[in-house]
């Protein structure tokens, strides 16, 4: 796990895709957090095609899902004991990502996700996210793109 002076954190993450009939496939995953986007964690999945698939997930959703089911719509997460990829009986975080092309279920080691989230809260404490947003800059960039 690394923290850079520019206010970003990244970490490799073991992740398993849970397929039909409980088939598991290990995937290479990276997690990224930036205080410039203090509400989101970027999850980048290496699909072997040279172009990673990226999802942006609420940091607070992941943190709350360490203890109870969270999320509605396209992103849901919940804790459990592993029955598949991460090792039987190990505490895991299940992450379900949804449409447009159907649902995918992933299993991650909860302690690793928790350690990553802990580092993000050291960088930007909970409730302090608005102090790290620069809405004027964001609005200017948006207008310049139009």
What would you note in describing this structure?
The protein is an alpha+beta fold. The protein has a single domain (2-145), classed as Sporulation-specific cell division protein SsgB (Transcriptional Co-activator pc4, Chain A), CATH 2.30.31.20. Helix content is 22%, strand content 40%. It is built from 3 helices and 8 strands. The protein has helices at residues 59-65, 110-123, 135-145; strands at residues 2-4, 8-18, 24-34, 40-46, 53-58, 75-81, 91-97, 104-109. Strands 1, 2, 3, 4, 5, 6, 7 and 8 form an 8-stranded antiparallel β-sheet that branches. The radius of gyration is 16 Å and the shape is globular. The N and C termini lie far apart (37 Å). The relative contact order is 0.18. The mean pLDDT is 88.
Short description:
22% of the residues lie in helices and 40% in strands. The chain contains three helices and eight strands; from the N terminus they run βββββαβββαα.
Radius of gyration: 16 Å
Terminal Cα span: 37 Å
Give unreliable regions as ranges.
none
- Domains, number: 1
Give the topology string: H per helix, E per strand: EEEEEHEEEHH
Fraction in helix: 10-25%
Instruction: Please name the CATH topology.
Output: Transcriptional Co-activator pc4, Chain A
What about the largest sheet? 8 strands, antiparallel
Count of distinct strands: 8
Question: Please, what is the average pLDDT?
Answer: 88
Question: How much of the sequence is in beta strands?
Answer: 35-45%
Shape: globular
- The H-level CATH homologous superfamily, spelled out, is Sporulation-specific cell division protein SsgB
CATH class bucket = Mainly Beta
State the helix count. 3
The class by helix and strand makeup works out as alpha+beta
Label the CATH architecture: Roll
By oligomeric state, this entry counts as single chain
